[in-house]
C-alpha cells in the first residue's frame, strides 16, 4: 500500500514530534541529572569516609610500635580520593551532549537534581537499596572470587587483588541504562569514586583490624607475663614439695615420745605426721630412715591415727592389718561421718510414690535410694522429725539404713514360706521380710533380749505386719527347740562389735577391745551353726540362709563363715547383690575357702553405707562334719540344757522375768549373755553392771591414758 502525500507529511510530522531533539534532550538530561546526583552523594560520602579513615590511620600509626605494614604501604601508593562533586559535573560535559542540551538540562533539572540528592540521602539513611549497602553486599559476594578473577579496578594491580575489592558487578547494571551507557568514561572516573569508596572501607577495616591486633597483642603480652610468673611460682612450689616429700621421715625416738607425755599434740601436727608416714610408706625403700622397718612406721602411724580420731590404739592397729595404711585412714575418717538418712517404704500399707509425695508436702527433701532398691528413700532435708510424722506413726515407712536392707534382699524370702529371724529386735529386717512375703507364711522373730523385743512388737503393729511370731530365746538353742519344725529360710543378723557403724555409736572407739571382738566372733560361730541346723535343706523353695553383721572385722565375718564351712554341709552362694566388695579369701596368714569371694562387704569409705558383711549360704544336707565336733557340740548342747532349761518365751511380756531382763538390757553391747553362760563356756562380754562399768572405765581410761605417741617404740 502506498501512502498519500498528505498522509506521508502527517506521518513525517508525527515522527518528528516523536524524535524531537528537545524531547530527547529533556529525557537524556533528566536521566543524566539523576545519575549525577547519585554520584555526587556517593562522592560526598566517600570524602567523609576518607577523612574518618585518615584520622583512624593517624591514631593507629601514632600508637603502633610496629613498622608500617605492607598493606599500609600499598594504601599510601594509592591515588588520592576523587575530586569533589564539581568534577563530576564537568565530566558530564564531556559526555558528548551539546551546550544547548546541557543548559536545557541544567535549567530544567536543577530542582530535580537537588531532589535526587536528597532522595539519595533519604534512601541512604533509610538503609533501603542504597549504593553503599549494595556495594557492601556485592563486596562480600565478590570476596571469594577475588583471588581467581583478574581485577578490573584501575587503582590497584593484581598484587592488590588479595585485599582490594573492585565494584565489578556495578558496571553491567549501569550499562543497562541508556544514560549510563553514555557515561562509560564517567564510570572510569566515578567508578574510581566507587572504588575509592571501597578502598576507604577496606582501609577502615584494616585499621580496625590493626587496632584489634594490637589489643590482642597487648593482652597476649600480659598473659605471657602472667604465665611466666605462674610457671616460676609453680616451679618453686614443686621444688619445695619435692624437698618436703622426698625428705626422710625420722620416727620419734623413745626419749622424744616420753618427753611428749603431757603435751597435748594439736590435730594439725598429728595430721602432718600421718601424712608424712603415709608418704614414706608409699616409697619405703627411698624414704625410710635407715634401720627402721615398715612395721615400725605402720605402728607409729596407728598411734597417730588413734590419737587423732580417739580410738583405742589396738583397734587402729587391727584396721591396719585389714586395709592398706591409706585405706585404713580413709575408713577411719569416713566412719566418723554420719550416713545419709534412709527410710524404707512399707509396701504393706502404701506405695513409695505416694509416700514420697506425702513427705514432700511436709517439706521433706528426698530422693530414691538407689537403683537396687524399689522401696528406699534417701532423706536429704526435713523440717519435721522423720521418726514422728503422721506417715511414720501410720506405719507407712521404717527408718532403716541402706546397708541393713541388703541381708533381707539377699535372703529373698518368698510368700508363704516359713522363715526364722534369729536375732530380730527391733524388727527392722523382720518387717522387711514380712513385706517381701506379702504378710503371708510365718516369720519367727527371735531375740535374746525381751526389752528389745518390745520394740519389735510395737513396730510390727505399727507397720501392719501380721505374719510374725516373736520369741525370746538364746539363738544357740533354737536348733533344739525347732528340731521338728525347720525353716525354709533363716536370717542371722548376728550380734556384733558394731565396728561398721561407728558413726552411730562412737563409744565403740574406746569400748571395744580386740578381745571383745574375738568373744563376739565365738558367739557368732555358735549362732551360725544353730541357724544352719534349723534350716530345712529339703525345702522346695529355700534351704537358704543369710549371715550378716554390721562389723568389718575378719574375726566376725570370713572367719565365722569359714568355720561353718568346716563344720556343716553348706556352700556359699552369690548374694545376688550387684554391689559391695568381695569378702576376703585370705587375711594375713589365714586362707579362707575361695567361695568366700561370693560374700559381700560394704564400707563407709567405699559405698557411703554402714560397714556391713553379707554371706548367703545354702544348706546341702544335715551332715555334721567331723565326729569330734559333733560329739563336742552335742556335749555343749547337753550342758546348756542342764544349766539353762529353756522355756518357750514366745509371749514377750512377762512380769516375773521383767526385772532380770531389765538388768540385761543395761548391757552396753548388743551381745547378751544367756544365763550361766560361764558354765556353758561361751565367751561373751561381761554381763553384770559392775563388771560392765569396770570395763568401760578401764577402756575409757586406757583410751585416755594411752597416749599413742608415748608408747615405747624400739629405737
Ligand atoms: C544386730 S542386732 C539385730 C538387729 C535386727 N536384725 C534388726 O534388723 O532390727 C543383734 C541382736 O541380737 C540379739 N542377741 C544377742 N545375743 C543373742 C543370742 N544369744 N540369741 C539371740 N539373739 C541375740 C541382740 O539382742 C540384738 O537385738
Automatic annotation (TrEMBL):
<keyword id="KW-0808">Transferase</keyword>
<keyword id="KW-0489">Methyltransferase</keyword>
<feature type="compositionally biased region" description="Low complexity">
    <location>
        <begin position="86"/>
        <end position="95"/>
    </location>
</feature>
<feature type="compositionally biased region" description="Basic residues">
    <location>
        <begin position="704"/>
        <end position="715"/>
    </location>
</feature>
<feature type="binding site">
    <location>
        <position position="474"/>
    </location>
    <ligand>
        <name>S-adenosyl-L-methionine</name>
    </ligand>
</feature>
<dbReference type="GO" id="GO:0000470">
    <property type="term" value="P:maturation of LSU-rRNA"/>
</dbReference>
<keyword id="KW-0949">S-adenosyl-L-methionine</keyword>
<feature type="binding site">
    <location>
        <begin position="423"/>
        <end position="429"/>
    </location>
    <ligand>
        <name>S-adenosyl-L-methionine</name>
    </ligand>
</feature>
<feature type="active site" description="Nucleophile">
    <location>
        <position position="550"/>
    </location>
</feature>
<feature type="domain" description="SAM-dependent MTase RsmB/NOP-type">
    <location>
        <begin position="331"/>
        <end position="620"/>
    </location>
</feature>
<feature type="region of interest" description="Disordered">
    <location>
        <begin position="41"/>
        <end position="238"/>
    </location>
</feature>
<dbReference type="Pfam" id="PF01189">
    <property type="entry name" value="Methyltr_RsmB-F"/>
</dbReference>
<feature type="binding site">
    <location>
        <position position="447"/>
    </location>
    <ligand>
        <name>S-adenosyl-L-methionine</name>
    </ligand>
</feature>
<comment type="similarity">
    <text>Belongs to the class I-like SAM-binding methyltransferase superfamily. RsmB/NOP family.</text>
</comment>
<dbReference type="GO" id="GO:0003723">
    <property type="term" value="F:RNA binding"/>
</dbReference>
<dbReference type="GO" id="GO:0005730">
    <property type="term" value="C:nucleolus"/>
</dbReference>
<dbReference type="GO" id="GO:0070475">
    <property type="term" value="P:rRNA base methylation"/>
</dbReference>
<dbReference type="GO" id="GO:0009383">
    <property type="term" value="F:rRNA (cytosine-C5-)-methyltransferase activity"/>
</dbReference>
<protein>
    <submittedName>
        <fullName>Nucleolar protein</fullName>
    </submittedName>
</protein>
<dbReference type="InterPro" id="IPR018314">
    <property type="entry name" value="RsmB/NOL1/NOP2-like_CS"/>
</dbReference>
<feature type="compositionally biased region" description="Acidic residues">
    <location>
        <begin position="128"/>
        <end position="146"/>
    </location>
</feature>
<dbReference type="InterPro" id="IPR001678">
    <property type="entry name" value="MeTrfase_RsmB-F_NOP2_dom"/>
</dbReference>
<feature type="region of interest" description="Disordered">
    <location>
        <begin position="624"/>
        <end position="715"/>
    </location>
</feature>
<feature type="compositionally biased region" description="Basic and acidic residues">
    <location>
        <begin position="690"/>
        <end position="700"/>
    </location>
</feature>
<feature type="compositionally biased region" description="Basic and acidic residues">
    <location>
        <begin position="216"/>
        <end position="231"/>
    </location>
</feature>
<dbReference type="InterPro" id="IPR011023">
    <property type="entry name" value="Nop2p"/>
</dbReference>
<feature type="compositionally biased region" description="Acidic residues">
    <location>
        <begin position="200"/>
        <end position="215"/>
    </location>
</feature>
<feature type="compositionally biased region" description="Acidic residues">
    <location>
        <begin position="180"/>
        <end position="191"/>
    </location>
</feature>
<dbReference type="InterPro" id="IPR023267">
    <property type="entry name" value="RCMT"/>
</dbReference>
<feature type="compositionally biased region" description="Basic and acidic residues">
    <location>
        <begin position="624"/>
        <end position="650"/>
    </location>
</feature>
<dbReference type="InterPro" id="IPR049560">
    <property type="entry name" value="MeTrfase_RsmB-F_NOP2_cat"/>
</dbReference>
<keyword id="KW-0694">RNA-binding</keyword>
<feature type="binding site">
    <location>
        <position position="493"/>
    </location>
    <ligand>
        <name>S-adenosyl-L-methionine</name>
    </ligand>
</feature>
<feature type="compositionally biased region" description="Basic residues">
    <location>
        <begin position="654"/>
        <end position="664"/>
    </location>
</feature>
<feature type="compositionally biased region" description="Low complexity">
    <location>
        <begin position="45"/>
        <end position="66"/>
    </location>
</feature>
